[in-house]
Amino acid sequence: MPLVDPFFSFLRKLHGSESIRIMDTCHGLLLLDRGGYDFDSIPSYVVCNPATKQWLAVPDFGWTPSPCNGMSVHLIFCPAMSSHFYLLQFTDDLFTSVTSVQIFSSKTGAWTHSESAWSLEEKQAPCERWRYESYSLEPERKRAVVNGMLYLICDSLGEGPPVLDGDHIIAVDVEGKTRKFIPVPFRMCKEQCSILSDFVGQSQGLVHYVNHEEPEYYTNNDGPSERSASEYNDDDDVEYELFIWILPEGDTQELVLKHTVSFLHLFGEKSCKAGIDYNVVAIHPDRDVIIFKWNDKLISYDMDTGEVCALHTVSDSFGFASYVPYFSELPALSNKY
Q1: 336 located within any domain
Q2: H-only helix segments in 187-310
Q3: Residue 38: how many CA atoms within 13 Å on its side-chain side?
Q4: pLDDT in tens, 123-177
Q5: What's this model's pTM, rounded to 2 decimal places?
């Protein structure tokens, strides 16, 4: 098959395609925003398949979005289950702090809004409580789509122990309804450390979740907290680790530890700060290989062999999205260049 055109030249006749931003990918389809990097504009979405040069301009919402603290959108496409795709857009209302979800279905060609389409019982279901409490979705930590369900990291904004109160994984169906609310696991085996989420993705048909330990004095992006790092000299000999967990098949809400690796083995440092020193950017869809951005390099780690390889030099401004071509044409993508 021919290589995929990385410049999206098949979209050049589409109005606004001169400034596009990749928002999400899923099983060979890409979600683009024609608003580019103008974050104040109302999104104008396009779903396309670069391998077949098909695309669909998603219609506007049909309503004016309320002022919001944040908005994230995710693409769900599972070709083994359906030839249709769905967009789930989460909006955190500025005044009520309620997280609502808007859904676009390629089957109906229209958007629906959770607050108007759901019954009272559905809105008040136990799994939906995160939408009305102090929780925030973390789209920059990626997401997984497995068996038609969208898995996202959900972080608590309240006070309290950051692990016990904080991170959960939510599983959302194509109607935007939360089906699972999974507390993330942790291994609090060292004092004076916090456990933070790094990544959720899918590999070999299973949800994979990555978290890690950090010293307590890693409190922000600017430097140590009021407690000086010198107070933690006893930690100099501690080797902090990454933990890789999987969600087994079936109706389970408990993640199982799959693998552990030290920062020293990965990067040659005993402790590293997520988002500053490194980022988990991808997991191989068919192998036990994780991809990191470390300083100005992409690095792979093979869980089976323990091998660490430098793959490529990249700019600090690079963003990453995993993409595997899908070569079948889809009736849902009605336009073709």
Answers
A1: no
A2: 263-267
A3: 11
A4: 888 899 898 887 888 888 889 999 999 999 998 765 544 444 558 899 999 999 9
A5: 0.89
| Residue at which a domain ends, from 160, 183, 206 | 183
Residue 335 located in a structural domain: no
d(CA 25, CA 34): 15
Do residue 81 and residue 178 come from a single domain? yes
Residue 50 lies in a domain: yes
Domains: count for the chain:
3
- Domain termination residue (choose one: 183, 205, 234): 183
DSSP class per residue in 181-202: EEEPP----SSSEEEEEEEEEE
Whole domain around residue 263: which residue ranges? 189-320
Residue pair 47/28 in contact by the 8 Å Cβ criterion:
no
Q: CB of 290 within 8 A of CB of 311?
A: no
Together in a domain, 11 and 43? yes
Same domain, 211 and 107: no
Q: Is residue 247 part of a domain?
A: yes
Measured from the Cβ of residue 254, the count of other Cβ atoms closer than 10 Å reads 10
Neighbours of 288 (CB within 10 A): 17
Q: Which residue has the tokens 């389409």?
A: 117
Q: Identify the weakest region by mean pLDDT among 136-150, 152-166, 231-245, 282-296.
A: 152-166
102 shares a domain with 42: no
- For residue 219, give Cα distances in angstroms to 152, 162, 215, 236, 321: 23, 11, 9, 18, 28
Say what the pLDDT of residue 68 is: 79
Residues 6+ apart with CB under 8 A from 82: 148
Distance set, CA 318 to CA 36, 144, 272, 312 (Å): 15, 21, 20, 12
Length of the chain: 337
> Cβ–Cβ contacts within 10 Å for residue 115, how many?
12
Name every residue whose Cβ is closer than 8 Å to that of residue 150 and which is 6 or more positions away in sequence.
74, 76, 88, 143, 144, 171, 172, 173
